[in-house]
Amino acid sequence: MCELFALNAEGPVNTNAYLREFFSHSVNHPHGWGISWRDGDPFDDASVTLVREGRRAIDSDLNWKILGSPIEKSHVLAHIRYATGTDMAERNCHPFRTVDMSGRQWTLIHNGILFNEGLTFPYEGRTEGETDSERMAAFLTDVLDEALLRGAEPTFDTRFEALTGAVTQLANRNRVNIILDDGEYTYVHTNTSKCTLFYHSFTDERGGRAIVVSTTCLGGHAEEEEWKPVPANRLIALRDGRLVRTSAPHGYRFCETILELQRKMGVRPEDFVA
């Protein structure tokens, strides 16, 4: 599977040490990498920097160049890819970027499998790449737009409720570890039976609050006990380095044993389109 990393902070935080460790895991996740960072206006497309490559991060001169300079931002997403059915190409690398009808800029990273693709199948052939992750990003953007078209106010509550409903539907029979960021809030969801997403809250050197989310606990032994499992089966929202809202839990816990059985039953690699 892929690995995810995210930062949500009150102010700019240097994440280079975490990112170097994170991207070193590309030894085992060799099929592409990506990173995005941003500060400021959620509606300003110029505030979003996004870089992706369809190659192993540790072999990438561009990755080394990026990490050679301080990345001091309040919102960061990063992804390393383990492809399971689609090409090793930039178009299939995360983060994926979308814009809703209000002009709000979104970035998404995903680690999971969609066995039940009823909600995302209509987007096949309408995205740049071939992954179910990108189709999921398109679906979620349409859900946000639909809420506005129905007359809802463009508020955080509207977005949170729309995303909660959509993610709950997506979690039915699917493995859905996703992180969405709009430059103001970071939305996180996991529904695996074994913990596959952790978070670490801390205060930066300026005294600001920050939260890092990652597939694996980063920072070595010194920080190992600081990491906690992300609450499963619910959507959580982060802002300014704080947990600001949690949805009611849904019942769609994805059992990893099911995945193992699917593989033993000969499910085709093409069905695992991450």
Automatic annotation (TrEMBL):
Pfam families named among the record's database cross-references: GATase_4 (PF13230)
Gene3D superfamilies on file: Glutamine Phosphoribosylpyrophosphate, subunit 1, domain 1
Gene Ontology molecular function terms on file: transferase activity
Entries under PROSITE patterns matching the protein: GATASE_TYPE_2
Keywords assigned by UniProt, alphabetized: Glutamine amidotransferase, Transferase
Domain (Glutamine amidotransferase type-2) ranges: 2-241
Keyword Transferase: yes
InterPro entries: EgtC-like (IPR026869), GATase_2_dom (IPR017932), Ntn_hydrolases_N (IPR029055)
UniProt protein name: Glutamine amidotransferase
Species this protein is from: Parafannyhessea umbonata
